[in-house]
Amino acid sequence: MEDNPGELWIDQGRDLFYQKRGPRNASLEQCDFGMGPGKLEGAAVRLPRYFADTDRVEDLESRLLTCMTRLQGFDRGQLIREAISAPASRGSDIEALALYVTSRSNGMKVNVTLNHQKEYDMYKAGEYLFYRRSGQTDFGCVQCHGEPDKRIRLQDLVHMTSKAGAQEVASTWPAYRGSHYVVRTMQWRLNDCVWQMRLPDLKYATDYSIALTTYLNRQGNDAVMQVPGFKR
Ligand code: HEC
User: Fold this and answer.
1) Mind listing the pLDDT tens digit for each residue in 14-33?
2) For the purposes of burial, counting CB atoms within 10 Å of the CB of 16, is it exposed (0-12), middle (13-18) or buried (19 or more)?
3) Ligand 1 mean position to 71 CA, how many Å?
4) Minimal CA–CA distance to 191: which of 160, 172, 213?
5) Whose Cα sits closest to atom 34 in ligand 1?
6) What does the alpha-carbon distance between residue 134 and residue 26 come to, in Å, rounded to a whole number?
7) CA dist list (Å): 164 to 108, 112, 130, 171
8) Contact 43/109 with Cβ under 8 angstroms?
9) pLDDT at 1 over 80
10) Rounded CA Rg of the chain
11) Rounded to a whole number, what is the distance in angstroms from the first to the last CA of the chain?
12) Which residues line ligand 1 (CB under 6 A)?
């Protein structure tokens, strides 16, 4: 993991976090990721989680959307359109911010709790979706990620029904993707797998993705967060 170019995005994300930006000319210092306004240490390892102010379970990226619209006044549709950057670009604001916020939990253990009913429901929905076969190819996540030592072409597929596999997922995103020269987030990763399954495009930060992330991260509890990951 040494010399991971993704490290550069951490600095970019820190700058974006503290700069006064958007129509309301505000920083993100009042954003509450679950530990209190502006408290980033240990916040990412608890996500997704329930937030009373939106009455929703939110993952990191949907929480960023909430804060960037409510505190900074950015347009939600515009943020979503720009959230996933083009390969070999400078990356999007959300990609850099997601990495910066997650990096503040490096060295801490993933600890997704399901104490709130909506957190439990999201987890169960994610579990259901992980095993559900759907679409024209009748694919389920479990077919590619439910056994050890599988691969597509030369790519090893993470075995996510094992503890170690789920932990790898929960502790390495956002990650620098070598073949794209940018940092990628979990929303991007899920969208790419949904595309591989030939399902309709995943709408950014919708419950389908939050459910799957809740399921996978919870399965990965106790992994030690270490971002940016480094992916092919
Ligand atoms: C057709 C096979 C296939 C299906 C079905 C599939 N994936 Fe994937 N998945 C892949 C491939 C290929 C990769 C990337 C491997 C690489 O590039 O090294 C991947 C990578 C991932 C990763 C990142 C693993 C890591 O490196 O940390 C996650 C998370 C993931 N998939 C989740 C899912 C989920 C959730 C579903 C169901 C919605 C799903 N996948 C369905 C093929 C699939």
Assistant:
1) 999 999 999 999 999 999 99
2) middle
3) 34
4) 213
5) 141
6) 43
7) 16, 16, 17, 11
8) no
9) no
10) 17
11) 12
12) 130, 139, 141, 143-145, 152, 155, 157-158, 168-169, 172, 189-190, 193-194, 196-197, 212, 231-232
- Take residue 93 and report the two structure tokens written for it: 């604001």
Tell how far the Cα of 106 is from the centroid of ligand 1, in angstroms: 23
* Residue 166 to residue 160: CA distance in whole angstroms: 5
Instruction: Report which ligand 1 atom has the smallest distance to the Cα of 152.
Output: 12
Scan for tokens 């959300």, then name that residue. 94
Q: In angstroms, how far is CA 79 from the centroid of its own chain?
A: 16
Cα separation of 164 and 224, whole Å? 11
Q: Which of 57, 41, 50 is nearest to 100 (CA)?
A: 41
Q: Which atom of ligand 1 is nearest the CA belonging to 199?
A: 38
Tokens representing 164 are 């170690």
d(CA 156, CA 232): 10
Chain segment 94-134, per-residue pLDDT in tens: 999 999 999 999 999 999 999 999 999 999 999 999 999 99
8 A C-beta contact, residue 136 and residue 198? yes
Is 70 exceeded by the pLDDT of residue 225?
Answer: yes
Query: CA 12 from chain center: how many Å?
Result: 18
Please name the residue that has the structure tokens 């990609």.
95
